[in-house]
Amino acid sequence: MVLPAASRARQSRNTSQCRSGGRHKQSMGELVAHLERRGYVERTVDPADRRARIVVTTAAGRRALALAADRIAGIERMLADELGDDALRALRTSLARVPGLIDSDAREA
Questions:
Q1: Where in the numbering of this chain does the HTH marR-type domain appear (predicted)?
Q2: pTM > 0.85
Q3: CB within 10 Å: which end of the chain, N or C, has fewer?
């Protein structure tokens, strides 16, 4: 989530990633710190707002994204071959609902 968001824009703020990813600021900060320790992203000062930080994908992060995209494409081809296109679409739709179901369950607890 962080790597794709930062990669698409080449950079992004934690707050915009929280909004798009549905995460809390603290958990997003922890995730960014984890990726930064591994060399996939860097945090820099936003020149437009010196209080804010921008998350930038590094070359290692872009390589990891490319590798992940290739692997995901291979898995999707295999699933399409085994399940068929309609079943794969249904699977994607169902899986896309999972985060919302988990979040609503957590709010009720």
A1: 1-100
A2: no
A3: C
